[in-house]
Amino acid sequence: MKKHPQTCIAIALAAALGLSMANGVLADASRHDRAQPVLVAANETMDQLSSGVDKTGEVVSDSWITSKVKSTFLADTSLGGMDIKVETTQGVVSLSGTVGSKAEKELAIQKAKTIKGVTGVSADALKVAE
């Protein structure tokens, strides 16, 4: 039975779990050379996974944020939730449409900012009716 696949799995697991046991697995130079691409790939994967995780460690998707913002607007009778379009890209919520007053626009911005996973709110396209 070859030990190379087991070594790669052990290294990837060690990198993913942040353990320092990789030093013992990489005892000789030939194993180190073979394992280096695996370590790099494991670190890149962990970076990609952690970029979509909020401070509590839970993954928050753009579609979930959009749904939550929209339902929050619809639940608030002082907001014209049906008149506000909500889109989310990488945690940034974009609001568009027309609201009845400047106070309503500010309320919509504040409500959107309170949703978990929101990293910013753009309301440039949210107009106040004249």
TrEMBL record:
Signal sequence bounds: 1-27
Keyword Signal: yes
Keywords on record: Signal
Keyword Signal listed: yes
Recorded superkingdom: Bacteria
Gene3D superfamilies: 3.30.1340.30
InterPro entries per UniProt: BON_dom, Lipoprotein_DolP, Transpt-assoc_nodulatn_dom_bac
Protein name listed in UniProt: Hyperosmotically inducible protein
